[in-house]
Amino acid sequence: MTHTFAVSFDYRCPFARNAQEAVVAGVREGRDWDVRYLAFSLDQVHVPEEEPPVWERPPGERGSGVAALEWGIAVRDTFPEHFLDAHWALFAARHDHGLKLGHVEVVRDAVATSGVDVDAVAAEVASGRPLKTLAEEHTEAVKRWAMFGVPTFCLDDDRAVFVRVMERNRPEDIDAVIDLFPFERLNEYKFTRIPR
Length: 196
What we know:
Layout: E1 3-9, H1 14-29, E2 33-39, H2 42-45, H3 66-78, H4 83-95, H5 104-112, H6 118-126, H7 129-145, E3 152-154, E4 160-162, H8 171-180
Parallel strand pairs: 1-2
Antiparallel strand pairs: 1-3, 3-4
Helix pairs in contact: 1-4, 1-8, 3-4, 3-5, 3-6, 3-7, 4-5
């Protein structure tokens, strides 16, 4: 049975990284998942209501995570055969190498490791389409699923769940998330201590 779901990401969040790596690993292992990778801006979440959204601001005033989201969206939508590698590399730039995603050269270098034509990706980002897509996806996520953070797993029937998986690259953790979707009476399930 195919499991169809969306999962949100912002490259700066370590929990989004854990979930996304598990999803990517599961897809690469051939799990029967139909996944939509949904961009969500944590910068926008922290914008006061009376201020303009990040996607209406000049590039230097959008926040430290928007450029990486634009580049990720550009690869996802224009060069999908490179997306999973670029997606993984953007998370690695931040969480393995401690680099600042607010610097376009850092984002560009990370995306380049996927083998994609980075000049073509840069041209797509410059077109403004990825920024418009970010605005649309973020707005849809808030309105449709009441999304407040990443990673959030979403079903087409408007159910969504915010999940923090604690370890990287474990597709079986995503299987567990999917298995819990039918259990709607469960609203919060959080260990008071994480055994290590």
